[in-house]
């Protein structure tokens, strides 16, 4: 009766106006803000955190998944100075990761093609 | 753009059901994301709805429906021998525009086995023995979709049954049902998980301190080699020193025996270690084993595409935030 929907962990609840990302500025720390990613978990959280920390203009980046049964993460970012906003560093981090994934797709395709050519696997694939 | 990495991939071994590869020059977070996506977010087909017309078997409807759900359903595109990625070939049923279901978002299977009918085709000695209904009895309405079966005829011959056993029936019993398979991800239910195993290990960096090794006698060197249960070290026949075994990366399990034993062998406590074994932070050995729904390489590829789509979607959402 009170069981959550089967889709609760990955589909946005659009009926109740849920959006993917909600941003709020930090009220106490300058150049900082928290992103709430709905329907995301450690997969994306840790990926973004580690990529953000590679950026020298990021002073702090951390994420929190409050409980296994809540389906959102909070990602907090603080930048070095007011010229770069947290939204901008996040945007460039995602762009880097998207490019890296693109690169990985071509690398993987090449590697499997080469392997098949070198190891005569006729009929197997 | 300024902080992008350019990872490399090297295939170690590849078969339809299993593959091993090295992912290097990237971060643990990327390796872990790929692993987690392969386990939980690669879409596959699985039976999700079952209509029972007659069930006089000993198992109740729910029990059989659950068992049907767990049967791996393989999508094999026309003119292909590969278990392919069903993402794109099918639509997630919640996104499909059809009223209830249609061939674009679902595949129907019919199953109708009556003991007494099937019994007439059986040999004399097994005439009254129970009959096993298997996944072979599921008749698909789509030529490209069928329950996953044995890799080879040899495997089939060694097996007891023709397919995945569903239920056994006896005289007078019948099972008749219609099963609907849909596309989904393992975050919803683990029956949609395409992998049996998806793991990575860290590449071991084995450093040998030649200067320190030179102070040891041959017996002592042998002692160091023998203390490691994984046998990652061996005597270098050319130089008489110790070297890492060629397959050390595969055998290494980071036991602490070597580390502890070395302390007892040192002349002074503050001396450097003879051999250090450390986990690499940017090189990973992946093992991916498929359940049979699609080829291992397709699972990795599909996982990467899922990640790409997700990142593009999130990038767009972040752009929207900027405009606000």
From TrEMBL, chain A:
Q: Which residues form the DNA-directed RNA polymerase RBP11-like dimerisation domain?
A: 34-106
Q: Which subcellular locations apply to this protein?
A: Nucleus
| Family matches, as Pfam families | RNA_pol_L_2
Looking up SUPFAM superfamilies in the UniProt record yields: RBP11-like subunits of RNA polymerase (SSF55257)
* GO molecular function ontology, one term from the record: DNA-directed RNA polymerase activity
Q: Does the keyword Nucleus apply?
A: yes
Give the CDD domains listed for this entry.
RNAP_II_RPB11 (cd06926)
Tell me yes or no: is Transcription regulation among this UniProt entry's keywords: no
Key words, A-Z? DNA-directed RNA polymerase, Nucleus, Transcription
Q: Which GO terms describe its cellular component?
A: RNA polymerase II, core complex
Q: Which GO terms describe its biological process?
A: transcription by RNA polymerase II
Q: Which family does it belong to?
A: Belongs to the archaeal Rpo11/eukaryotic RPB11/RPC19 RNA polymerase subunit family.
Listed HAMAP family: RNApol_arch_Rpo11
Protein name from the UniProt record: DNA-directed RNA polymerase RBP11-like dimerisation domain-containing protein
Question: Origin organism of this chain?
Answer: Fragilariopsis cylindrus CCMP1102
UniProtKB/TrEMBL annotation, chain B:
Q: Does the keyword Nucleus apply?
A: no
Gene Ontology CC, one term: RNA polymerase II, core complex
Q: Which GO terms describe its biological process?
A: transcription by RNA polymerase II
Residue span, DNA-directed RNA polymerase RpoA/D/Rpb3-type domain: 18-317
Q: Which domain of life is it from?
A: Eukaryota
Report keywords, A-Z.
DNA-directed RNA polymerase, Transcription
**Which GO MF terms does the UniProt record name?**
DNA binding; DNA-directed RNA polymerase activity; protein dimerization activity
Record's SUPFAM superfamilies?
Insert subdomain of RNA polymerase alpha subunit, RBP11-like subunits of RNA polymerase
Which PANTHER family does UniProt cross-reference here? DNA-DIRECTED RNA POLYMERASE, DNA-DIRECTED RNA POLYMERASE II SUBUNIT RPB3
Protein family: Belongs to the archaeal Rpo3/eukaryotic RPB3 RNA polymerase subunit family.
Q: What is this protein called?
A: Insert subdomain of RNA polymerase alpha subunit
């Amino acid at each position: 009766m009170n069981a959550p929907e089967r889709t609760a962990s990955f589909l946005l609840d659009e009926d109740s106006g849920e959006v993917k990302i909600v941003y709020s500025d930090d009220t106490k720390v300058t150049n900082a803000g928290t992103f709430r990613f709905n329907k995301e978990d450690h997969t994306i959280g840790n990926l973004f955190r580690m990529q953000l920390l590679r950026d020298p203009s990021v002073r702090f980046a951390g994420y929190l998944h409050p409980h296994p049964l809540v389906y959102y993460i909070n990602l907090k970012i603080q930048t070095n100075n007011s010229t770069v906003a947290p939204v901008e560093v996040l945007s460039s981090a995602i762009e880097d990761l998207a490019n890296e994934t693109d690169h990985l797709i071509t690398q993987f395709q090449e590697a499997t093609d080469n392997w098949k050519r070198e190891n005569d696997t006729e009929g197997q694939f | 753009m300024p902080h992008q990495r350019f990872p490399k991939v090297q295939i170690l071994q590849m078969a339809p059901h299993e593959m091993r590869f090295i992912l290097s020059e990237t971060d643990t977070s990327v390796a872990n994301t790929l692993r987690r996506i392969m386990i939980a977010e690669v879409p596959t087909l699985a039976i999700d709805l079952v209509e029972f017309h007659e069930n006089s078997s000993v198992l109740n409807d729910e029990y059989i429906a659950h068992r049907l759900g767990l049967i791996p359903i393989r999508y094999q595109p026309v003119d292909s021998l590969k278990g392919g990625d069903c993402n794109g070939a099918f639509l997630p049923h919640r996104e499909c525009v059809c009223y209830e279901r249609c061939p674009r978002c679902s595949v129907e299977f019919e199953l109708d086995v009556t003991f007494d009918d099937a019994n007439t085709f059986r040999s004399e000695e097994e005439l009254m023995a129970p009959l096993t209904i298997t996944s072979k009895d599921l008749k698909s309405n789509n030529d490209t979709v069928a329950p996953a079966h044995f890799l080879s005829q040899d495997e089939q011959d060694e097996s007891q049954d023709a397919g995945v056993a569903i239920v056994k029936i006896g005289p007078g019993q019948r099972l008749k049902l219609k099963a609907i398979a849909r596309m989904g991800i393992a975050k919803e239910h683990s029956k949609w998980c395409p992998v049996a195993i998806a793991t990575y290990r860290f590449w071991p960096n084995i450093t040998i301190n030649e200067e320190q090794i030179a102070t040891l006698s041959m017996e002592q060197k042998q002692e160091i080699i023998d203390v490691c249960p994984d046998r990652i070290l061996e005597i270098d026949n050319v130089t008489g020193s110790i070297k890492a075994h060629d397959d050390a990366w595969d055998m290494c399990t980071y036991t602490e025996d070597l580390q502890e034993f070395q302390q007892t062998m040192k002349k002074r406590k503050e001396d450097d270690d003879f051999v250090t074994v450390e986990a690499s932070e940017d090189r990973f050995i992946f093992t991916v084993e498929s359940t049979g729904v699609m080829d291992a390489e397709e699972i990795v590829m599909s996982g990467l595409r899922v990640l790409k789509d997700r990142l593009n979607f999130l990038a767009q959402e972040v752009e929207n935030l900027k405009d606000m």
